[in-house]
Amino acid sequence: MDKKRVFSGIQASGSLHLGNYLGAVSNWVKMQEEYDNYFCVVDLHTITVYQEPKQLRAAVREVAGLLFAAGIREERSVVYVQSHVRAHSELAWILNCITPMGWLHRMTQFKEKSDQHKEEVSVGLFDYPVLQAADILLYDTHLVPVGEDQKQHVELCRDIAQRFNFRYGDVFTLPEAFIPPVGGRVMGLTNPEKKMSKSEEKLDDAIFLLDPPDRIRSKIKKATTDSLKEIRFDESRPGINNLLTIYQLLTGKEKESVENYFADKSYKDLKEELAEVVIESLKPLQERYKELTGEKGYLDSMLERGAERAESYAERKLQKIYRKIGLR
Ligand code: TYM
């Protein structure tokens, strides 16, 4: 059993969108056959910003359901909810005690998020990347498939692991981020200068995985483009570049063949064709989601089994860490 270990996490702070899917989840699905996988719905990360309890409970189930609907298989991957495995919080505390504050002050995502939630920035939000490091390190992870925005957090996790190993001996595997060459940063539809995100105020900016066909058509129709005509990949034209990138990822075509295909077509054609491609790509996922959430207790029992499997690994690792530090 020499398979490399993959770990990744996803928050339950709203519905999943195409950025989450193309930047992360679709790669988890592809990678799962080759690796030993842990995929976690990170509800403890989610509460670093206030969540209404009822909504949080529903969002955790929705996200977990979408992972299975997207093609994550219980036979190949351990899927579970972070708060069901206590070792994550316990290791986060230990890592807190070896992580210098200065390292966290450098995290760009904290700067962005604390600007967005100025009225109340919790200690948890500041400490968020340390909990993320605990997630990854508990499972002796080699690879962390994520979108580009998580690169800095994975690098911090390596630094924390190295510092721990230097003080206490070789305990942690040093993980590496796996960021897809295309799709690591899917941009917003109305504001293509910024990444697509779950933020509520920008509902037309993101295509959510459970959006019905008409919503998808109307959002893509409204997507920002430019005043030029030519349809080709060009980073200096973020709107068109983003629409083409989404098209490319969902059809699996090469850049050149996408450009040739649209050579004599208009922006209107591009938008209409892209909308149909998105709708068709999400259709099987939406159908599976309906099936598996329609059957009472099915999803919960999968998550229970996932938590048991994750816990048995994480608990053993945590005991080893306690001994190394002198807590046992
Ligand atoms: P989260 O929930 O914000 O996003 C989940 C995954 O989706 C990727 N992603 C994107 N990729 C491309 N384009 C976008 N517009 C886009 N938006 C989001 C994210 O990079 C991520 O891979 N901190 C993590 C959750 C986490 C985690 C972990 C990840 C907690 N512990 C341990 C890996 C390992 C986050 O907030 O993801």
The computed structural class is: mainly alpha
Share of helix, binned? 55-70%
CATH class division of the largest domain = Alpha Beta
Please give the alpha-carbon distance between the first and last residues.
Answer: 30 Å
Mean pLDDT: 96
> Could you please say which CATH topology of the largest domain applies here?
Rossmann fold
Largest sheet, strands/sense/barrel: 3 strands, parallel
- What is the percentage of strand-forming residues? 5-15%
Protein model, in words:
The protein contains 13 helices and five strands. With 328 residues, it is mainly alpha-helical. The protein has two domains: 5-179 and 296-325, 3-Layer(aba) Sandwich (Rossmann fold); 203-291, Tyrosyl-Transfer RNA Synthetase (Orthogonal Bundle). The strands form two sheets. The protein has a three-stranded parallel β-sheet, with helices on both faces. Strands 4-5 form a two-stranded parallel sheet. Helix 1 (18-31) links the parallel strand 1 and strand 2 (36-41). It is globular. The chain starts with a strand and ends with a helix. The model has no long low-confidence stretch (mean pLDDT 96). Residues 7-11, 19-20, 23-24, 42, 45, 132, 135-136, 144, 146-147, 149-150, 153, 184-186, 195-196 line the site of tryptophanyl-5'AMP.
